[in-house]
Amino acid sequence: MTQKTPAFRSIKSHEETLSATEIVERFEAVTGCSLHPTNAGNAAKVLGLDYIEVKQEVTSGVWTVQKRYSILDIDFIFERLKALADNRARYQ
What distance in Å separates the CA atoms of residue 50 and residue 31, rounded to the nearest whole number? Predict the structure, then answer.
C-alpha cells in the first residue's frame, strides 16, 4: 500500500532522529537489501522532509555536518528505498 506523501513539518526538539547511515542500516536489517546512505538522503529530499544539521568531529580539528531525519518519517523513506531496491532487483 502506498502511503500519502507527508506534509512538511518541522522536527521537534524532543524527536528522535536518525542519520542516513542509520536509516539504511535499519532498512537492510528489515529487508536484507543494502543501499548507500545517499539513497536515504535523496529519498528524504524528494519527499521534502525536514532535517536537522549536527556538527561532528571526524578527526582532531576536522568537523563535518551530518543531516538527521525524524524517526517519525522513516516509513516514508523506507517506501522510497523499497521502490529503489525493487527496481534494481529487476535489472540484476
Answer: 25
